[in-house]
Design goal:
The protein is α/β, with parallel strands linked by helices and 389 residues long. It folds into 2 domains: 223 residues, TIM Barrel; 127 residues, Beta Barrel (Lyase, Ornithine Decarboxylase, Chain A, domain 1), CATH 2.40.37.10. 30% of the residues lie in helices and 23% in strands. The strands form 4 sheets. It has an 8-stranded parallel beta barrel. Helix 4 links the parallel strand 3 and strand 4. Helix 7 runs parallel beside helix 8. The longest helix has 21 residues. The structure holds pyridoxal-5'-phosphate (PLP). Pyridoxal-5'-phosphate binds next to strand 9.
Amino acid sequence: MFTSPLNWVEINRKALEHNLAVFKKMTANQSVICACVKANAYGHGLIETGKIIGKDRRVWLGVNAVFEAESLRKAGIKNPIYILGYTPLSQLENAARLNCRLVVYNYETIEKLSKIAVKLHKKVPVHIKIETGNNRQGLLPSEAVKLAEKISASSLVLEGAATHFANIEDTTDHTYAFFQLKNFMDACEKIEDATGAKIPIKHCANTAATILFPETHLNMVRVGIGLYGMWPSKETYVSALREGNRGQSPAATVPFSLRPVLSWKTRISQIKEIPEGSYIGYGCTYKTTAKTRLAILPVGYYDGYDRGLSNTAYVLIKGRRAQIRGRVCMNITMVDVTDIPAAAIEDEVVLIGRQDKENISIEQMADRCNTINYEIPTRINERVPRIVI
Ligand SMILES: *Cc1c(COP(=O)(O)O)cnc(C)c1O
Protein backbone atom coordinates (compact mmCIF):
# COMPACT_ATOMS: atom_id res chain seq x y z
CA MET A 1 0.00 0.00 0.00
CA PHE A 2 2.59 2.58 1.13
CA THR A 3 5.67 1.64 -0.80
CA SER A 4 8.84 3.09 0.65
CA PRO A 5 7.55 6.34 2.08
CA LEU A 6 10.15 9.07 2.63
CA ASN A 7 9.07 9.32 6.24
CA TRP A 8 6.44 7.52 8.25
CA VAL A 9 4.72 7.32 11.62
CA GLU A 10 4.67 4.10 13.61
CA ILE A 11 1.77 3.44 15.96
CA ASN A 12 2.43 1.04 18.82
CA ARG A 13 -0.76 -0.97 19.21
CA LYS A 14 0.20 -2.44 22.58
CA ALA A 15 0.94 1.00 24.02
CA LEU A 16 -2.41 2.33 22.84
CA GLU A 17 -4.24 -0.66 24.30
CA HIS A 18 -2.31 -0.26 27.53
CA ASN A 19 -3.29 3.41 27.84
CA LEU A 20 -6.94 2.66 27.13
CA ALA A 21 -6.84 -0.01 29.85
CA VAL A 22 -5.33 2.54 32.27
CA PHE A 23 -8.30 4.86 31.78
CA LYS A 24 -10.82 2.05 32.04
CA LYS A 25 -9.29 1.04 35.35
CA MET A 26 -9.10 4.64 36.52
CA THR A 27 -12.82 5.05 35.98
CA ALA A 28 -13.43 1.58 37.46
CA ASN A 29 -15.38 0.75 34.29
CA GLN A 30 -18.13 2.93 35.74
CA SER A 31 -18.03 5.75 33.20
CA VAL A 32 -18.20 5.44 29.45
CA ILE A 33 -14.88 6.26 27.78
CA CYS A 34 -15.19 8.67 24.89
CA ALA A 35 -11.85 8.35 23.10
CA CYS A 36 -11.08 11.63 21.35
CA VAL A 37 -9.89 10.79 17.85
CA LYS A 38 -10.33 14.26 16.39
CA ALA A 39 -7.39 15.88 14.59
CA ASN A 40 -6.51 12.59 12.88
CA ALA A 41 -6.44 10.97 16.34
CA TYR A 42 -4.00 13.61 17.53
CA GLY A 43 -1.90 12.75 14.49
CA HIS A 44 -1.92 9.02 15.23
CA GLY A 45 -4.18 8.17 12.27
CA LEU A 46 -7.98 8.31 12.60
CA ILE A 47 -8.73 4.92 11.08
CA GLU A 48 -5.68 3.09 12.41
CA THR A 49 -6.41 4.34 15.93
CA GLY A 50 -10.19 4.05 15.61
CA LYS A 51 -9.94 0.37 14.70
CA ILE A 52 -7.77 -0.45 17.71
CA ILE A 53 -9.81 1.53 20.22
CA GLY A 54 -13.08 0.53 18.59
CA LYS A 55 -12.53 -3.17 19.28
CA ASP A 56 -14.36 -2.54 22.53
CA ARG A 57 -17.80 -1.55 21.31
CA ARG A 58 -18.60 0.23 24.58
CA VAL A 59 -15.97 2.87 23.85
CA TRP A 60 -17.25 5.98 22.12
CA LEU A 61 -15.23 7.85 19.54
CA GLY A 62 -15.10 11.63 19.78
CA VAL A 63 -14.61 13.48 16.50
CA ASN A 64 -14.71 17.15 15.63
CA ALA A 65 -16.70 17.00 12.43
CA VAL A 66 -18.98 14.89 10.25
CA PHE A 67 -16.30 14.04 7.71
CA GLU A 68 -14.36 12.18 10.39
CA ALA A 69 -17.47 10.25 11.38
CA GLU A 70 -17.96 9.36 7.74
CA SER A 71 -14.40 8.01 7.45
CA LEU A 72 -14.87 5.89 10.58
CA ARG A 73 -18.16 4.44 9.34
CA LYS A 74 -16.68 3.73 5.90
CA ALA A 75 -13.91 1.80 7.65
CA GLY A 76 -16.61 -0.35 9.23
CA ILE A 77 -16.32 1.08 12.73
CA LYS A 78 -19.67 0.79 14.48
CA ASN A 79 -18.93 2.32 17.87
CA PRO A 80 -20.97 5.26 19.09
CA ILE A 81 -19.61 8.46 17.59
CA TYR A 82 -19.92 11.79 19.36
CA ILE A 83 -19.35 14.95 17.32
CA LEU A 84 -17.61 17.47 19.58
CA GLY A 85 -17.43 20.34 17.12
CA TYR A 86 -19.92 22.35 15.12
CA THR A 87 -22.11 20.52 12.65
CA PRO A 88 -23.29 22.94 9.95
CA LEU A 89 -27.06 22.89 9.35
CA SER A 90 -26.44 21.45 5.90
CA GLN A 91 -24.55 18.51 7.45
CA LEU A 92 -27.13 17.55 10.09
CA GLU A 93 -28.82 14.94 7.94
CA ASN A 94 -25.49 13.29 7.16
CA ALA A 95 -24.67 13.21 10.86
CA ALA A 96 -28.02 11.58 11.65
CA ARG A 97 -27.66 9.01 8.86
CA LEU A 98 -24.21 8.11 10.19
CA ASN A 99 -25.78 7.46 13.62
CA CYS A 100 -23.82 10.16 15.36
CA ARG A 101 -24.70 11.90 18.57
CA LEU A 102 -24.21 15.63 18.45
CA VAL A 103 -23.32 18.39 20.82
CA VAL A 104 -25.91 21.18 20.51
CA TYR A 105 -26.16 24.80 21.57
CA ASN A 106 -28.28 26.50 18.84
CA TYR A 107 -32.05 26.66 18.32
CA GLU A 108 -31.54 26.45 14.58
CA THR A 109 -29.81 23.10 15.01
CA ILE A 110 -32.64 21.70 17.16
CA GLU A 111 -35.35 22.80 14.74
CA LYS A 112 -33.68 21.37 11.68
CA LEU A 113 -32.42 18.19 13.32
CA SER A 114 -35.82 17.49 14.82
CA LYS A 115 -37.41 17.53 11.37
CA ILE A 116 -34.66 15.26 10.06
CA ALA A 117 -35.27 12.80 12.91
CA VAL A 118 -38.95 12.59 11.95
CA LYS A 119 -38.15 12.20 8.28
CA LEU A 120 -35.62 9.42 8.90
CA HIS A 121 -37.68 7.76 11.65
CA LYS A 122 -34.58 7.91 13.82
CA LYS A 123 -33.82 8.66 17.41
CA VAL A 124 -31.13 11.30 17.20
CA PRO A 125 -29.33 11.71 20.53
CA VAL A 126 -28.07 15.18 21.39
CA HIS A 127 -25.92 16.52 24.19
CA ILE A 128 -26.42 20.06 25.35
CA LYS A 129 -23.23 22.04 25.87
CA ILE A 130 -23.27 24.16 28.99
CA GLU A 131 -21.10 27.24 29.33
CA THR A 132 -19.57 27.12 32.80
CA GLY A 133 -16.53 29.36 32.41
CA ASN A 134 -14.55 28.52 29.30
CA ASN A 135 -16.50 30.95 27.11
CA ARG A 136 -16.05 28.91 24.05
CA GLN A 137 -18.78 26.58 22.74
CA GLY A 138 -22.02 26.35 24.71
CA LEU A 139 -24.88 28.13 26.44
CA LEU A 140 -25.02 29.84 29.82
CA PRO A 141 -27.09 27.78 32.28
CA SER A 142 -30.30 29.84 32.01
CA GLU A 143 -30.20 29.59 28.21
CA ALA A 144 -29.30 25.91 28.38
CA VAL A 145 -32.45 25.22 30.40
CA LYS A 146 -34.56 26.84 27.68
CA LEU A 147 -32.86 24.87 24.94
CA ALA A 148 -33.29 21.66 26.95
CA GLU A 149 -37.02 22.32 27.21
CA LYS A 150 -37.12 22.86 23.48
CA ILE A 151 -35.28 19.56 22.92
CA SER A 152 -37.70 17.74 25.22
CA ALA A 153 -40.61 19.07 23.21
CA SER A 154 -38.97 18.04 19.93
CA SER A 155 -38.51 14.60 18.41
CA LEU A 156 -34.89 14.52 19.57
CA VAL A 157 -33.46 12.63 22.53
CA LEU A 158 -31.68 14.66 25.20
CA GLU A 159 -29.06 12.05 25.91
CA GLY A 160 -26.41 14.14 27.57
CA ALA A 161 -25.08 17.37 28.99
CA ALA A 162 -21.49 18.49 28.70
CA THR A 163 -19.07 21.18 29.70
CA HIS A 164 -15.34 21.71 29.21
CA PHE A 165 -12.67 22.92 31.64
CA ALA A 166 -10.77 26.10 30.85
CA ASN A 167 -7.98 25.93 33.37
CA ILE A 168 -7.15 22.44 34.49
CA GLU A 169 -3.91 21.49 32.77
CA ASP A 170 -2.23 24.90 32.92
CA THR A 171 -2.09 25.10 36.68
CA THR A 172 -1.73 23.16 39.92
CA ASP A 173 -4.45 25.34 41.47
CA HIS A 174 -7.76 23.79 40.53
CA THR A 175 -10.11 26.29 42.15
CA TYR A 176 -11.46 27.38 38.77
CA ALA A 177 -12.07 23.81 37.63
CA PHE A 178 -14.14 23.15 40.75
CA PHE A 179 -16.03 26.40 40.20
CA GLN A 180 -16.89 25.12 36.71
CA LEU A 181 -17.82 21.67 38.02
CA LYS A 182 -20.25 23.25 40.49
CA ASN A 183 -21.78 25.44 37.78
CA PHE A 184 -22.19 22.35 35.65
CA MET A 185 -23.85 20.23 38.33
CA ASP A 186 -26.19 23.11 39.22
CA ALA A 187 -27.12 23.62 35.58
CA CYS A 188 -27.81 19.91 35.09
CA GLU A 189 -30.08 19.94 38.11
CA LYS A 190 -32.01 22.92 36.73
CA ILE A 191 -32.41 21.16 33.40
CA GLU A 192 -33.64 18.00 35.10
CA ASP A 193 -36.14 20.00 37.14
CA ALA A 194 -37.38 21.86 34.08
CA THR A 195 -37.72 18.81 31.83
CA GLY A 196 -38.75 16.37 34.54
CA ALA A 197 -36.26 13.83 33.24
CA LYS A 198 -32.83 12.67 34.30
CA ILE A 199 -29.99 13.47 31.93
CA PRO A 200 -28.55 10.02 31.23
CA ILE A 201 -24.99 11.04 30.35
CA LYS A 202 -23.35 13.97 32.12
CA HIS A 203 -19.75 14.57 31.14
CA CYS A 204 -17.03 17.13 31.66
CA ALA A 205 -13.70 15.36 32.18
CA ASN A 206 -10.80 15.56 29.75
CA THR A 207 -7.58 13.64 30.45
CA ALA A 208 -6.38 15.96 33.22
CA ALA A 209 -9.71 15.88 35.04
CA THR A 210 -9.99 12.11 34.61
CA ILE A 211 -6.55 11.58 36.14
CA LEU A 212 -6.85 14.10 38.94
CA PHE A 213 -10.45 14.20 40.08
CA PRO A 214 -12.71 11.12 40.21
CA GLU A 215 -15.63 13.43 41.08
CA THR A 216 -15.50 14.71 37.49
CA HIS A 217 -15.91 11.26 35.90
CA LEU A 218 -19.73 11.28 36.11
CA ASN A 219 -21.24 9.10 33.36
CA MET A 220 -18.55 9.58 30.73
CA VAL A 221 -14.97 10.84 30.40
CA ARG A 222 -13.61 12.36 27.19
CA VAL A 223 -10.00 11.28 27.03
CA GLY A 224 -7.62 12.44 24.31
CA ILE A 225 -3.97 13.14 25.02
CA GLY A 226 -3.63 10.47 27.72
CA LEU A 227 -4.72 7.70 25.36
CA TYR A 228 -1.76 8.54 23.18
CA GLY A 229 0.55 8.17 26.14
CA MET A 230 1.14 11.82 26.90
CA TRP A 231 0.45 13.80 30.04
CA PRO A 232 -1.62 16.95 29.45
CA SER A 233 1.14 19.04 31.06
CA LYS A 234 3.87 19.10 33.68
CA GLU A 235 1.40 20.79 36.03
CA THR A 236 -0.95 17.83 35.66
CA TYR A 237 1.86 15.45 36.49
CA VAL A 238 2.84 17.42 39.57
CA SER A 239 -0.81 17.60 40.61
CA ALA A 240 -1.15 13.84 40.16
CA LEU A 241 1.81 13.29 42.46
CA ARG A 242 0.10 15.49 45.01
CA GLU A 243 -3.41 14.12 44.57
CA GLY A 244 -1.96 10.65 45.06
CA ASN A 245 -2.21 11.35 48.78
CA ARG A 246 -4.39 14.41 49.04
CA GLY A 247 -3.32 17.11 51.45
CA GLN A 248 -0.03 15.50 52.34
CA SER A 249 3.44 15.83 50.93
CA PRO A 250 3.83 14.67 47.34
CA ALA A 251 3.64 10.95 46.78
CA ALA A 252 6.78 9.53 45.24
CA THR A 253 5.04 7.98 42.26
CA VAL A 254 1.92 8.08 40.17
CA PRO A 255 0.19 4.70 40.43
CA PHE A 256 0.01 4.08 36.69
CA SER A 257 2.11 4.69 33.61
CA LEU A 258 1.22 6.03 30.20
CA ARG A 259 3.13 4.68 27.23
CA PRO A 260 3.92 6.86 24.19
CA VAL A 261 2.19 5.45 21.12
CA LEU A 262 3.78 7.35 18.25
CA SER A 263 7.22 7.25 16.65
CA TRP A 264 8.20 9.19 13.57
CA LYS A 265 10.94 7.93 11.31
CA THR A 266 12.75 8.57 8.06
CA ARG A 267 15.83 7.28 6.24
CA ILE A 268 19.09 8.92 5.20
CA SER A 269 18.88 9.94 1.54
CA GLN A 270 22.48 11.11 1.06
CA ILE A 271 25.75 11.35 2.97
CA LYS A 272 28.52 13.72 2.05
CA GLU A 273 31.61 15.40 3.42
CA ILE A 274 31.88 19.14 3.29
CA PRO A 275 34.92 21.27 4.17
CA GLU A 276 35.46 23.49 7.20
CA GLY A 277 33.89 26.93 6.72
CA SER A 278 30.93 25.71 4.61
CA TYR A 279 27.49 27.21 5.03
CA ILE A 280 24.55 24.86 5.41
CA GLY A 281 21.07 25.53 4.09
CA TYR A 282 18.89 28.56 3.38
CA GLY A 283 20.03 31.81 4.92
CA CYS A 284 23.51 30.37 5.56
CA THR A 285 22.56 30.16 9.24
CA TYR A 286 25.14 27.46 10.01
CA LYS A 287 28.83 27.48 9.14
CA THR A 288 30.95 24.41 9.74
CA THR A 289 33.87 24.81 12.13
CA ALA A 290 35.55 21.65 10.88
CA LYS A 291 35.33 19.15 8.08
CA THR A 292 31.80 17.78 8.46
CA ARG A 293 29.98 14.64 7.45
CA LEU A 294 26.44 15.61 6.65
CA ALA A 295 23.38 13.37 6.28
CA ILE A 296 20.45 14.61 4.21
CA LEU A 297 16.98 13.56 5.39
CA PRO A 298 13.83 13.50 3.21
CA VAL A 299 11.58 15.24 5.73
CA GLY A 300 10.71 18.89 6.24
CA TYR A 301 8.13 21.35 7.43
CA TYR A 302 5.66 20.20 4.77
CA ASP A 303 5.57 16.90 6.63
CA GLY A 304 5.09 18.74 9.91
CA TYR A 305 8.70 18.76 11.04
CA ASP A 306 8.63 22.25 12.52
CA ARG A 307 10.93 24.86 11.04
CA GLY A 308 11.49 26.07 14.60
CA LEU A 309 13.68 23.00 15.06
CA SER A 310 16.29 24.51 12.68
CA ASN A 311 19.79 24.44 14.23
CA THR A 312 18.40 23.34 17.59
CA ALA A 313 17.00 19.82 17.61
CA TYR A 314 18.61 16.49 16.89
CA VAL A 315 17.55 13.18 15.42
CA LEU A 316 18.72 9.66 16.29
CA ILE A 317 20.93 7.63 13.99
CA LYS A 318 22.58 4.37 15.08
CA GLY A 319 21.36 5.12 18.60
CA ARG A 320 23.21 8.44 18.73
CA ARG A 321 22.23 12.07 18.49
CA ALA A 322 22.77 13.85 15.19
CA GLN A 323 22.34 17.62 15.42
CA ILE A 324 20.28 19.51 12.85
CA ARG A 325 22.47 21.90 10.86
CA GLY A 326 20.96 24.91 9.16
CA ARG A 327 17.30 25.47 8.53
CA VAL A 328 14.66 22.81 8.17
CA CYS A 329 13.47 23.08 4.54
CA MET A 330 10.11 22.23 3.01
CA ASN A 331 11.01 18.61 2.23
CA ILE A 332 14.61 18.27 3.39
CA THR A 333 16.58 18.49 6.64
CA MET A 334 20.35 18.25 7.15
CA VAL A 335 22.02 16.66 10.19
CA ASP A 336 25.59 16.25 11.36
CA VAL A 337 26.90 12.67 11.40
CA THR A 338 30.61 13.51 11.64
CA ASP A 339 30.84 11.51 14.86
CA ILE A 340 28.63 8.66 13.65
CA PRO A 341 31.01 7.12 11.11
CA ALA A 342 28.83 4.03 10.65
CA ALA A 343 25.91 6.12 9.34
CA ALA A 344 25.04 5.12 5.78
CA ILE A 345 22.47 5.82 3.12
CA GLU A 346 18.98 4.46 3.93
CA ASP A 347 19.78 4.00 7.62
CA GLU A 348 16.73 4.48 9.78
CA VAL A 349 16.48 7.87 11.45
CA VAL A 350 14.26 8.58 14.44
CA LEU A 351 12.64 12.04 14.57
CA ILE A 352 10.36 11.19 17.50
CA GLY A 353 10.72 8.07 19.60
CA ARG A 354 13.31 5.67 20.90
CA GLN A 355 16.44 4.25 19.31
CA ASP A 356 18.64 2.08 21.52
CA LYS A 357 19.18 4.04 24.72
CA GLU A 358 18.20 7.42 23.33
CA ASN A 359 14.68 8.86 23.20
CA ILE A 360 13.19 11.99 21.64
CA SER A 361 9.89 12.75 23.31
CA ILE A 362 7.07 14.82 21.90
CA GLU A 363 7.35 17.01 25.00
CA GLN A 364 11.00 17.74 24.28
CA MET A 365 10.15 18.69 20.73
CA ALA A 366 7.24 20.86 21.89
CA ASP A 367 9.55 22.77 24.25
CA ARG A 368 11.91 23.47 21.37
CA CYS A 369 9.00 24.71 19.24
CA ASN A 370 7.53 26.89 21.99
CA THR A 371 4.29 24.99 21.99
CA ILE A 372 2.46 22.21 23.83
CA ASN A 373 2.77 18.47 23.23
CA TYR A 374 -0.77 18.40 21.72
CA GLU A 375 0.35 20.43 18.72
CA ILE A 376 3.37 18.35 17.68
CA PRO A 377 1.73 15.10 16.53
CA THR A 378 -1.44 16.80 15.26
CA ARG A 379 0.77 18.74 12.85
CA ILE A 380 2.31 15.68 11.25
CA ASN A 381 0.90 15.82 7.73
CA GLU A 382 -2.01 13.42 7.22
CA ARG A 383 -0.32 12.21 4.06
CA VAL A 384 2.55 10.71 6.08
CA PRO A 385 1.68 7.00 6.37
CA ARG A 386 0.65 5.66 9.79
CA ILE A 387 1.87 2.10 10.23
CA VAL A 388 0.56 0.01 13.11
CA ILE A 389 3.20 -2.20 14.70
C1 LIG B 1 -10.32 17.30 22.62
C2 LIG B 1 -11.30 17.37 23.70
C3 LIG B 1 -11.15 16.60 24.87
C4 LIG B 1 -9.90 15.79 25.16
O1 LIG B 1 -8.93 16.57 25.83
P1 LIG B 1 -7.56 15.93 26.32
O2 LIG B 1 -6.94 16.99 27.14
O3 LIG B 1 -6.78 15.62 25.09
O4 LIG B 1 -7.91 14.71 27.07
C5 LIG B 1 -12.17 16.61 25.78
N1 LIG B 1 -13.28 17.35 25.58
C6 LIG B 1 -13.45 18.11 24.49
C7 LIG B 1 -14.69 18.92 24.32
C8 LIG B 1 -12.47 18.15 23.52
O5 LIG B 1 -12.64 18.92 22.43
